[in-house]
Amino acid sequence: xxxxxxxxxxxxxxxxxxxxxxxxxxxxxxxxxxxxxxxxxxxxxxxxxxxxxxxxxxxxxxxxxxxxxxxxxxxxxxxxxxxxxxxxxxxxxxxxxxxxxxxxxxxxxxxxxxxxxxxxxxxxxxxxxxxxxxxxxxxxxxxxxxxxxxxxxxxxxxxxxxxxxxxxxxxxxxxxxxxxxxxxxxxxxxxxxxxxxxxxxxxxxxxxxxxxxxxxxxxxxxxxxxxxxxxxxxxxxxxx
Length: 240
Prior knowledge:
Elements: E1 3-12, H1 22-32, E2 38-47, E3 52-61, E4 66-70, E5 74-79, E6 82-83, E7 89-90, H2 94-112, E8 118-127, H3 130-140, E9 154-166, E10 169-190, E11 193-208, H4 219-239
Antiparallel strand pairs: 1-5, 1-8, 2-3, 3-4, 4-5, 6-7, 8-11, 9-10, 10-11
Helix pairs in contact: 2-4
């Protein structure tokens, strides 16, 4: 099993759904996103950072296979691992997902009449080619590690700074990579079915710096961020 598995696009902002009639809010969002044939649910979630329980609006689109979670401070748009009727994994379609993400984020910013203050695009990958995994291992595991040549499980995290040019401004970007190799097969439940994955699992998170809290993320910013994030992701894939 190779390639992109699933993805999450996150938009941060001051949405403050707790201060509104939560049921009406869910109905309004369902109407805004009616082209995606969505239905909704309200869930109570414990917010670790605030140590309180707050509502989260969950929106689901069976037509497009995406989930949306709206809370006070962020909106997550999730493209989960999907499988077909035969139980085979459906290839993640980045072009379609990003097109939907941009449309949904713009519609919700317009509905809340605000700009966002941070944005993130996260993709999970799987690589099962043993020769390629060994090549990556030799790049990231130092030969001075304890018996590195006999290492059969390993995990590496890295974070680097990049720079995008968005809305005629330089934007500091974090690129966080998590690599995790486990030779054992892992079973993932998806609805009533399950798939087995194995090999090198790695996650790449491309996000704007949390230190910049300016409410600068508008429609144009969204377009330019995803264009550059997708290109950067492609370059990372080609390198590894």
